């Protein structure tokens, strides 16, 4: 059987031609994504000998990363910063996306989207620098406030700390958060909102019972799109974070390039990824349970209680993950907090006979 | 039959979209317990009028009253109306039961009562046991039933239906027409249907308002609308109508005498000119089934004319003859029910045609 007939046979079958189609990007992904990830995973279990890597399997890097006060505090801070950035960005992005989708004339929507993406015309680095100019000791904010006499001396808590990192990242990721929410809102059939009001609900209740649940896929997408890259952001904390604003990426850079400790840097990188996976997993489990609880309550629960539950839920989970990241004895408390909240939700569902 | 009380009253209702005058002084009343239709071509303002009842459209002038109360400033969620949307507007993130029970949240029912009410409503529309289904897994007809149950469960005074059958196939549509009539009789509330399908309106309604360009052209029961349309536009929109030129020769004491091409002189009652025709050149209109092609020895109607058959369209149960009456320029259509043993005539046949002055309508 010749080579030609082999290819012809592959092309004829549906699965074969599909494989052929994904082969180039697949190869690309394996070479540039999976292979480096595998290498890092491998490094993280090896031993560091100064200027070289000794091929001895060890868990020392991880135990160091998870017990050393410095590493731990940086990881907790990274998590807290990216959670704060995610919360702020998504909360601010939602009203903007809502406005553009519901209150801007259809013919002007593309113009608005275009305006929203204008910050991308400037390099990320330059945008971060600009925030330095705005937030600095002699920066725009300080000289403005001094000029109108609100403050007597320049504010120092707005640059070279966690605050400035959060502000800068929230600005940088705003368009990423707006677009998915906008798309989700655009897909909502407007007659559904009329139906909500026709069935006796106010505009606000219709928003809570119809618009918000239908926009959730977009909200989830923007949470992921903001949360995952910010936790590993390097440039912003480096430039505006100062010593107290340092995050995981800066630590990894330090290990790799300054201390030449590849295994340690890899272990921190893998830990960071695990942190992301852990947070997302808990968030997902929570959303499932909370969604079920909310559906059950929909007919019988006052909305104030539902919103309170949502906040409690977010607090229990984010708080819990933060505690886990801060390790013993906090981890136990964190696990307990998350578990008890989930159990509470389950019990409520059980008692209500939960609508399937 | 006693006159039912008024449920909805429009008084000189105007609505503008920018420069476009969508509703041009609507004045009408809809009675309680009536199956009322708003019929007209697309863009005639029928949906806009329905939406002013629901509270989705404000009005620029005039008054909309529901059950004796002025609805000015009353938002949609405070009106005693519920709507079945053209797209059905089923909430895709909810089950059938959640959709149907949506409006009952504010009633503060216990879970058991809520489930019972939802069950009743589903049973009423023939969807018993469908409560747990996901809304997106339903067929078009089922979605419509869910929309109906969701609206009727709130026991509104008025149910608004915005072209509810237009998305269904012909069989399903005919089935749902009967179903809707049955439902309306069962719950006894006012139904207001918007449709562009004249047949649908005739089949379902107690009364019909025919709308053109933001105005009500005629408001009447189906039979009157069909037999005595008050303008050529209404006559053309509902069914088929033939027109022949005529001249009014005298007009006095509720009797109108005309001289019509092909028919000759005849006397009509004033009721046969609902458009209030006076003097001069007019048109006389008649439905295809009011003329009869006469076979040997047969007679039908009060009078007879001679005609030539110019076109024959055979439909199985019906035959349409386009005939030219002697002394006229253009052919008129006659529909004949086919009866066993009676031949279908050929093109070119000379035949007698029977007719009655009582079936004629005069138009300007």
Written description of the protein model:
The complex is a heterodimer of chains A (356) and B (364). Chain A is an all-alpha fold and 356 residues long. Chain A folds into two domains: 1-34, no CATH class; 44-273, Orthogonal Bundle (MetI-like fold). Chain A has 15 helices and two strands. Chain A has a two-stranded antiparallel ribbon. The radius of gyration of chain A is 25 Å and the shape is globular. Chain A starts with a helix and ends with a helix. By secondary structure, chain B is α+β, with helices and mostly antiparallel strands. Chain B contains eight helices and 20 strands. In chain B, strands 6-7-8-3-9-10 form a six-stranded mixed sheet, with helices on both faces. Chain B is elongated, with a radius of gyration of 25 Å. Chain B starts with 5 loop residues before the first strand and ends with a strand. The mean pLDDT of chain B is 91. The chains are: A mainly alpha (356), B alpha+beta (364). The interface between A and B is medium-sized, with 24 and 35 residues.
